Amino acid sequence: MNPAKTAVTTVAQLSHSEETAIIELSSEIQHSLLEDELESISDDELAILVNGLGQVRPEIREEACLKVLVQLIQNQILTTDQIGILQKHILRPEVLFFHITENANNGVFLRSFNVCLLAILKLWEQPVAMDKADYEDMIMLLATYLLFETDTRGFDDEQGWFRTYFHIGHILDALTFDNQVVRMDKIFLMTVMLERYKRLDTPLTMGEEQRLAGYLTNLVKVNSLYADYFLLQLKQMRQQFVQNQEPTTLAGWNRFYNKKRLWQALQLQSQLPENISNYLRDMNFF
């Protein structure tokens, strides 16, 4: 256990009336979209949907908020100013680092689903005016988030999906295809992700390894620089594995099998560069 973390915190939720307002607004927007009648939404309506991303109830967080926000982005309903406001909101430390230094609690939903929303904005290439300093700030915020995010919970019968590392795969993949992100920053983010991944003390078992393997494959296909660097990372991890003794704790075995599942997921990637796929096949890692 991380000694810096404290007891589980109770995370405040919206009131019943506020959740009801979200459901009603969501239904209205979806109906208007279905009828091809929606041309815009107000800033206040956008705020109502965004504020629901931290809710514990999946029918609020996922169905009423995230699903509708994705539809608004895909149908280009939001204005350029609203897209900019949305991205600035997501990249606030109060959002990305919400309860992140504490023991696993419901604060994870706000972090995870805002990261997912940022990835959607990037993947759909929504126009946001960003200069070099803006990109540098975004990269540092996301890298810091990666370093601190240790909640690996996948799915819960009552609370639905947590999906932190699945959504991390989304945003890293989106930035892979963003030509405004320089090579050094893409290598930096890959390094931070791998260093955090191999130190996770709890298991990733809900498809996160496949999502991250897909991201890594897409990145190393872009340029041989990324492929060569990733191969060096694999060799370093192999050396560390050989030097380390067999795990004797649950956390140690979780780290062991997390890495094993990632390498197996990589081996299934048909478009992985040949030198990397050959190394994974021949290294007898486990």
Radius of gyration: 20 Å
For the biggest β-sheet, the strand order reads 1-2
Counted beta strands: 2
Report the portion of residues in β strands.
Answer: under 5%
Helix-residue proportion: 55-70%
Structural class: mainly alpha
Low-confidence stretches: none
* First and last CA, distance: 26 Å
Nearest-integer average pLDDT: 94
Largest sheet: 2 strands, antiparallel
Count of the domains: 2
The count of helical stretches stands at: 13
Pfam families: DUF2785
InterPro entries: DUF2785 (IPR021247)
Protein name: Putative membrane spanning protein
Descriptive key words:
286 residues; Putative membrane spanning protein; 2 domains; DUF2785; 2 strands; single chain; globular
Brief sketch in words of this structure:
It contains 13 helices and two strands. It is mainly alpha-helical and 286 residues long. It comes from Weissella minor.
Description:
- This protein has two domains: 10-163; 182-285.
- A hairpin with a 3-residue loop joins strand 1 and strand 2.
- The chain is built from 13 helices and two strands; from the N terminus they run αααααααββαααααα.
- The protein has helices at residues 16-34, 43-51, 58-74, 80-90, 93-96, 108-123, 132-148, 164-176, 183-197, 208-222, 224-243, 250-267, 274-282; strands at residues 155-156, 160-161.
- Strands 1-2 form a two-stranded antiparallel ribbon.
- The two termini are 26 Å apart.
- The protein is mainly α.
